[in-house]
Structures are given as C-alpha cells and as structure tokens.
C-alpha cells in the first residue's frame, strides 16, 4: 500500500506539469505505478532500455496497410544498422535499443480468415517478452 505522503507527492509532481490534468491517460497511471514501486515521487533510472518487437502480420493481405510486408524486414535491417528515427532518439537520450524478431517473414496469419496464431504461439511470444523484461 502506498503511503498517503508519497501519493500526494506523486500527484503534485504530475499536476504541476504544463498540461491538462490527466491528459496523458494511461501513461500517467503507469508512471505513478513506477514511482510507487520505487518509493519516490521522482525516481531516477540508472539504465534505460526499449525493446522493439518486429513481426509480420497476415492481415496485410486485406489491404489495410500502406506498405507491403517486405517493408518490415527493411525496417528491421534499418533498426539493426542504427539508422531509424528510434535509434536516433535512443542515442540522444542514452537509451539502449534492442530489436526483437518476433516473426519477421513468418508472422501471424490473416485474422480476417484464420486465427492469427495458436494459443501456444501466443504464449511463447508472451514468455519471450517476460524473459527480456526480467
């Protein structure tokens, strides 16, 4: 249970920003949870990292994407080479960026026609994410 003093400090920090109250929605909730876990209204992060999970999605067959599936592999290559906008932003802020191939070339099926993936495939992807987060 978070102490009332800590909760007041967290709320005061968020509410002092130049933005409408609650305008960042779920992001504010997540940041508050992080502050609570760390026990500080303004916790410092010693090491920052972002994972980009890349995969092809079969639904592209339905014409719902601006780009063909081949672009996914091209973007992953660009991420790995350090040339994407995400790489530039990560470098500028000292954030580690890791690219995870979660199914490029062998992604999900077209969910308009089939199940996108099996329960086992879904569970394997969730477990892979858990392992990386650990």
Brief overview, please?
The chain is mainly α. It contains five helices and two strands, in the order ααβααβα.
Q: What key phrases describe this protein's structure?
A:
single chain; mainly alpha; two-stranded parallel sheet
Written overview of the protein:
The protein is mainly alpha-helical. It contains 5 helices and 2 strands; from the N terminus they run H-H-E-H-H-E-H. It has helices at residues 4-15, 26-38, 70-81, 85-92, 119-133, and strands spanning 48-54, 95-101. A two-stranded parallel ribbon has the order 1-2. Helix 1 packs across helix 2. The protein is elongated. The two termini are 23 Å apart. 4% of the residues are buried.
As a percent range, the share of helical residues equals 40-55%
Distance between the termini: 23 Å
Number of helices: 5
The proportion of residues in beta strands is 5-15%
Total number of beta strands: 2
Mean pLDDT, rounded to whole units? 88
Rg, please? Answer: 19 Å
Give me the strand/helix succession: HHEHHEH
Looking at the chains present, what oligomeric state does this protein adopt? single chain
